[in-house]
């Protein structure tokens, strides 16, 4: 199994060739996998049922690849055009071999079944999921910006933007926890922004069902992938919750710690504690640090951050009414429809001056694959097109 050349590798080659050698960039056809007609269904298919149904080839042919969005730790995300619906989607393509090698079959199926179950204005809902012979496909609507890219471009956010993003995330977390779901990977990279700049929480790859009051013990989250991230993404990493790092038990309160880290970073432009190389060092660092609150952080926000980044999970803020009466949220209506009506000026202003436009093109003679971590597919194709002229 390990020696099979992944269809995705072929795709990278195809895409790289297109980007560098075509004058007009035509959408590339999505890799077609042969129709599956055997009976009984072979194990490499049945293992992934029913979350990933088989599809006739006809269904796949209606999708065209427009570009590469990102390479996550599990799969590659492609931007595709659904010719029938005339709409653009993002498809995460995960090699089955990887799922089995990493023993993540259950988690992979759980990701899809959780995303299918939830429906919330600030959650990125599942469009479709299916399987081919060698890959699993997870399709969602396409978002051109994520919070990490925005934050990397602008640094610290103005207080009004932090408040709006915070309120939207509070609503999402309360909704998920009420549904008995713990996300376990709340971080900027997993928060996409819709065309009006509002949040769409994504990547339920580490989520699990955990009823209120129940406890989990698995050490997971971004730190688990730190070695890989250090090599590929310059060492950026979120900070894990003290109770998660210590091996548990932990509950839904772990997500609220992550929200604290995220809001601290949005407000100050930096993480509260530097990333460490392993769980043990990270735990020591998180336990002994009293994250220094810069004087520029307004008092009410500083109070909120302290109450979220509270070492004792029992004392951490975690219920909607905690936030509704909090001084930082004075005057905020915790209603998704009302929040969605608020303009997100920061996003609108940044969209026209994307950092990518100032990227030096002369230094482009490098691996495209390493670039997709920081650039959107659109920009990648634009850069390639400019190089050709
Ligand atoms: N619908 C989408 N529209 C635009 N970009 C997306 C979409 N879904 C995912 N991405 C981008 O692809 C990246 C990787 O996706 P995702 O997090 O789902 O994959 P992953 O393999 O689980 O990654 P990791 O575990 O490393 O976070 C995201 O951080 C985001 O930048």
From TrEMBL:
Record has Coiled coil as a keyword: no
A GO molecular-function descriptor: ATP binding
SMART domains in alphabetical order: S_TKc (SM00220)
Protein name: Protein kinase domain-containing protein
Record-linked InterPro entries: Kinase-like_dom_sf, Prot_kinase_dom, Ser/Thr_kinase_AS
SUPFAM superfamilies recorded: Protein kinase-like (PK-like) (SSF56112)
Pfam families given in the database record: Pkinase
Domain Protein kinase: 63-329
Alphabetized UniProt keyword annotations: ATP-binding, Kinase, Nucleotide-binding, Serine/threonine-protein kinase, Transferase
Transmembrane segments: none
């Amino acid at each position: 199994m390990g020696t099979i050349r992944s269809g995705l590798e072929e795709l990278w080659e195809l895409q790289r060739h297109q980007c560098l050698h075509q004058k007009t960039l035509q959408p590339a056809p999505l890799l077609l996998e042969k129709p599956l007609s055997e009976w009984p269904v072979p194990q490499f298919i049945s293992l992934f049922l029913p979350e990933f149904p088989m599809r006739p080839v006809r269904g796949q042919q209606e999708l065209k690849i427009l570009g590469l969005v990102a390479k996550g730790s599990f799969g590659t995300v492609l931007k595709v055009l659904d010719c029938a619906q005339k709409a653009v989607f993002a498809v995460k393509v995960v090699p089955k071999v990887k799922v089995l090698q990493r023993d993540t079959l259950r988690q992979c199926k759980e990701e899809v079944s959780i995303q299918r179950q939830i429906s919330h204005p600030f959650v990125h809902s599942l469009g479709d999921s299916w399987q081919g012979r060698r890959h699993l496909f997870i399709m969602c609507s396409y978002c051109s910006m994520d919070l990490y890219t925005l934050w990397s471009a602008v640094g610290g956010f103005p207080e009004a933007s932090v408040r709006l993003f915070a309120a939207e995330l509070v609503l999402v977390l309360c909704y998920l926890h009420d549904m008995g779901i713990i996300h376990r990977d709340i971080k900027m990279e997993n928060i996409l922004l819709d065309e009006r700049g509002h949040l769409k929480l994504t990547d339920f790859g580490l989520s699990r069902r955990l009823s209120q009051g129940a406890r989990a013990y698995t050490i997971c989250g971004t730190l688990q992938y730190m070695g890989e991230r250090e090599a590929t993404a310059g060492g950026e990493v979120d900070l894990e919750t003290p109770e998660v790092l210590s091996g548990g038990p932990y509950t839904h309160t772990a997500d609220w710690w992550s929200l604290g880290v995220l809001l601290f970073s949005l407000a100050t432009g930096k993480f509260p504690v530097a990333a460490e190389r392993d769980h043990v060092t990270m735990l020591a660092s998180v336990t002994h640090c009293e994250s220094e609150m810069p004087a520029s952080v307004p008092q009410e926000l500083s109070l909120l951050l302290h109450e979220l980044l509270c070492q004792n999970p029992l004392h951490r803020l975690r219920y909607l009414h905690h936030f509704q009466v909090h001084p930082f949220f004075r005057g905020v209506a915790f209603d998704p429809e009302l929040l969605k009506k608020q303009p997100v000026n920061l996003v609108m202003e940044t969209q026209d001056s994307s950092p990518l436009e100032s990227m030096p093109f002369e230094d482009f003679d490098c691996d495209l694959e390493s670039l997709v971590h920081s650039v959107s597919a659109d920009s990648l194709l634009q850069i390639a097109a400019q190089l050709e002229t």
